[in-house]
Amino acid sequence: MSSDSSDADDTAEIPVVQRTEVDRKPRIARTMRVLALPIIVVWLLIAIGVNVFVPQLEKVAEEVSVPLSPSDAPSVTGMKHIGEKFKEYDSDNLVLVTLVGDKPLGEDAHRFYDDLVKKLQQDHEYVEHALNFWGQRFTSSGVESYDHKAAYVQVNLRGDQGGAVGDKSVAAVRKIVADSKPPAGVKAYVAGQGALTADTIVVGDASLAKMTIITIIIIAIMLMFVYRSIGTVLLTMVILFVGLATGRGVVALLGETGIMGLSTFAVNLLTALAIAAGTDYAIFMVGRYQEGRERGWIAKPPITTRSPVSPRWCWARV
Length: 318
Fold this sequence. Notes:
This protein has twelve helices and four strands. The longest helix has 35 residues, at 193-227. Helix content is 60%, strand content 8%. It is α+β, with helices and mostly antiparallel strands. The protein has a four-stranded antiparallel beta sheet.
């Protein structure tokens, strides 16, 4: 009997001390919980500071915008090489000032065209070169339509397409054309790739605010369906707004100081990423806290358990 009992003791399952998630309290998470109020205050001060003392991101992007075309692209370098050899221009920014008439263009349209070309050529700040083909008898047919109701002048501008100087050059040409007085039945337009790029940037900036508002409204509605709690939704939205304001402000500061260049597409992408990251972080934090509370934990363990600053969480986010 004694041998049987000893054999049973030997084969009995060895108790293993289970390490629960409550016992795991990362040091960083504990520090964040203890210093929760100062951390919140610091983030709020950063968000307020970069939005009060730094211009808005859209304004900074307009002032320091970078060209959309890569400077080392074969087409861009080839175009600039042609302009260099002919001593006409050194950018890829050009527009077509087009005259359109209700009837075939006559002498009054020619005089208006010549006067407009002179004004463009006198603007040495934004205009590099203007091809006055229609003003020469032997080249006029090359820039005139078959029905003789339209003609254009090619204008090379300073600054590359999409850049801050390039956009200002397009605006300067448009102002010259808008201030001119074409004859009756004739209208002048600014067209071409440079003008199209400038319009694309304006439309992108104008749609950014609408896109941001619609996205935030959709996120708030989805969170209300999931949490069914106004307080929880408001907490999540506060985290989202603080993250969005801080991210936009910091990038605006980097652009204002010349550390990095911006474009309208980069600003749109940054806003979308800031909204996504802020929402993801807030949902993760609230979800882990609610999960711990449902297990019967007190308030502190859910906060410190599996903190989103742990290496495992960071790897999961990547």
